[in-house]
Automatic annotation (TrEMBL):
Protein name in UniProt: Membrane protein insertase YidC
Organism of provenance: Corynebacterium gerontici
Gene: yidC
Cellular localisation: Cell membrane; Membrane
Membrane topology listed for this record: Multi-pass membrane protein
Function, as annotated: Required for the insertion and/or proper folding and/or complex formation of integral membrane proteins into the membrane. Involved in integration of membrane proteins that insert both dependently and independently of the Sec translocase complex, as well as at least some lipoproteins. Aids folding of multispanning membrane proteins.
Main location: membrane
Ranges where the Membrane insertase YidC/Oxa/ALB C-terminal domain occurs: 32-279
Coiled-coil ranges (or none): none
Domain of life: Bacteria
Keywords from the UniProt entry: Cell membrane, Chaperone, Membrane, Protein transport, Transmembrane, Transmembrane helix, Transport
Subunit structure: Interacts with the Sec translocase complex via SecD. Specifically interacts with transmembrane segments of nascent integral membrane proteins during membrane integration.
Listed transmembrane segments: 5-24, 30-52, 97-118, 188-207, 243-266
Protein family membership: Belongs to the OXA1/ALB3/YidC family. Type 1 subfamily.
Length: 319
């Protein structure tokens, strides 16, 4: 059903594994983990420009708030007219709200695709969405772009002594796919739990960086506070979700995530850490330059000392 996602994700992972295998053994757990990290960075690199455009669009939307409020005031009972005038205003200012959603819309399918591809290296389970293959069948069945040899390489690879597609809640009967079974659930937890904690903390602090920036901008008068109590409540709720709810979901769902997927999340947060700082600095510099340009234009149009202001309304008055 989602093959249009699974095939590209598996192809990118396959490509980076082949590249890394030029340096490391292809059966090494680190070769597979580094390939997952490079897949993450590849996807995120393509999203840098859309993310930058999203931030610019969000800043322009804040500047448009007073004009949008005037539209609502002008057409209080005509929703259709409000929408038309709002779209017209957004077009004039070069704002595209839909484009701002692109980074989030892309990252979720990548997460789902990688989750499925990693899970599909071990298809010996008999539960829902599992194929119930025998150990021998599983080792000799391709996984999307990965050949049976690649599947065997992945199953035999270990990172800190555990398979890359193992996970805390994995049924013990599925351990047989990773022969020899030289690990236990405790071994998996010893690798997965520190990664989960790291992801939770990184997600929280990356969100806090964004929230703190919002507060600094409000204090500096660069961003308007919510217009009413209801909007303020909604903003606070969104911030709490970013800071606490999203990290908390990782704690409860981490037991379902493969070790490889946990490394994806760690590398994704590392990229976010540096990307946010770069984008925020760039956007703030652009905003400061625009403010300075407006001040300079205002100074240039102001009358010189001792010069009377040019007031067209007084022309034709008393002589």
């Amino acid at each position: 059903m989602l093959n249009f996602i699974y095939w590209p994700i598996s192809a990118i992972l396959w490509f980076w594994h082949k590249v890394v295998s030029l340096v490391l053994s292809p059966d090494s757990g680190w070769a597979w983990v580094i390939a997952i990290v490079l897949l993450t960075f590849t996807i995120r690199a393509f999203l840098v420009k859309p993310m930058l455009n999203q931030m610019r669009s969000m800043r322009k939307m804040q500047e448009l708030q007073p004009l949008m409020a005037e539209i609502k005031k002008k057409y209080p009972k005509d929703q259709q007219k409000q929408m038309e005038e709002t779209r017209k205003l957004q077009k004039e200012m070069g704002v595209n709200p839909i484009a701002g959603c692109l980074p989030a819309l892309v990252q979720m399918p990548v997460f789902i695709g990688l989750f499925h591809v990693l899970r599909s290296f071990n298809r010996t389970g008999t539960g829902k969405t599992q194929l119930g293959l025998s150990v021998e069948q599983n080792r000799n069945t391709a996984n999307y772009i990965f050949s049976p040899d690649d599947v065997q390489s992945f199953l035999d690879a270990r990172i800190f002594g555990v398979p890359i597609s193992s996970y805390i809640s994995m049924p013990k009967e599925m351990y047989e796919a990773f022969k020899p079974v030289d690990f236990t659930k405790t071994d998996i937890m010893m690798v997965a739990v520190p990664l989960i904690i790291l992801i939770v903390l990184a997600t929280h602090f990356n969100a806090r960086l964004s929230v703190n920036r919002q507060e600094r901008r409000k204090a500096a008068g660069l961003q308007k506070a919510p217009a009413n109590d209801q909007m303020a409540m909604q903003a606070n709720m969104m911030n709490r979700m970013m800071l606490w709810f999203l990290p908390a979901t990782i704690i409860f769902t981490g037991a379902l995530w493969h070790i490889g997927l946990l490394f994806y999340m760690v590398s994704n947060n590392i990229w976010t850490f540096f990307q946010q700082r770069w984008i925020f600095a760039k956007i703030d510099a652009e905003e400061a330059a625009e403010i300075e340009a407006k001040k300079e234009a205002k100074r240039a149009s102001a009358p010189l000392p001792g010069q009377r202001p040019n007031n067209p309304k007084r022309k034709g008055g008393k002589k």
